[in-house]
Design goal:
mainly alpha; 9 helices
């Protein structure tokens, strides 16, 4: 990843603004997809159903201008909305900084990590990964890999196969089929087997630490379900943006 130079700064601004806009749409997906609601139609307050006007839908600005309250019913607006918008803007900007020489490639990468963000939130809240987001992610991951020839299929088979074996062995008790699809897409996105192995390592380390903390706090039991999608998604984003730097650092210490 390189710092942007002045000639490409307008592209960076464009990517950040586009990310903010898609972050607003992402909130619609997060709220409606798990409920199997249509994503068509105007956005509205989830409590009073007040249809939002265009000025109430400006990413970040509307939330603070409205003092985090619905204009119609004065109920509090969840902080999820500005946080998802801000995170989407940041991720789009980082994607461009990762691929500054090719805005088209950067856009595909940005969409990939944006979908990972949305799926992490949905899986964390509901415990499932929707195919409506998972399958487009796989397609985008393969598209991104195809733009970095030679297309290394090792990552696809390693990422998808690792979770497929677990799903088949446990008959779906350990992980869901959504994790298999997600792993396939992540494998395509990351490409090289070293990057996929780093992704798996980070996923299970962070997931294990979180599970141990929740057990210690008494918020989970040994037989409790813990959504794994957020850890897979977060680790995939880290590896997609900084995987090579992490591998280089680990190799310098003979750790990987």
């Amino acid at each position: 990843m390189t710092f942007v130079d002045p000639t490409t700064f307008p592209y960076l601004v464009f990517f950040v603004v586009l990310g903010l806009i898609l972050g607003s749409f992402g909130n619609v997906l997060i709220c409606r997809v798990p409920q199997h609601e249509s994503i068509r139609g105007r956005s509205h307050c989830p409590r009073c159903k007040h249809v939002l006007s265009p000025w109430e839908l400006i990413p970040l600005l509307s939330f603070f201008a409205l003092a985090a309250k619905c204009k119609n019913c004065s109920k509090s607006i969840s902080w999820q909305y500005p946080l998802i918008e801000a995170a989407s803007g940041i991720l789009f900007g980082l994607a461009f900084l990762h691929e500054p020489a090719s805005p088209a490639t950067a856009l595909i990468l940005a969409l990939c990590i944006w979908l990972l963000l949305l799926m992490a939130v949905i899986d964390g809240r509901t415990g499932y990964l929707p195919d409506g987001l998972n399958l487009p992610f796989v397609a985008l991951g393969i598209s991104y890999a195809a733009l970095h020839p030679p297309f290394d299929t090792t990552g696809v088979f390693l990422g998808g196969g690792f979770f497929l074996i677990q799903w088949l062995s446990s008959r779906g008790r350990w992980i869901g089929s959504g994790d298999v699809i997600l792993g396939t897409g992540i494998g395509a996105l990351l490409g090289a087997w070293e990057h996929v192995m780093l992704f798996l390592f980070l996923s299970y380390i962070t997931g294990g630490i979180a599970a141990g903390f929740l057990l210690w706090k008494g918020q989970k039991k040994l037989n409790s379900h813990l959504s794994f999608g957020p850890f897979l998604s977060a680790s995939a984003v880290v590896c997609a943006l900084w995987g090579q730097q992490i591998l280089d650092a680990l190799q310098s210490f003979y750790l990987f």
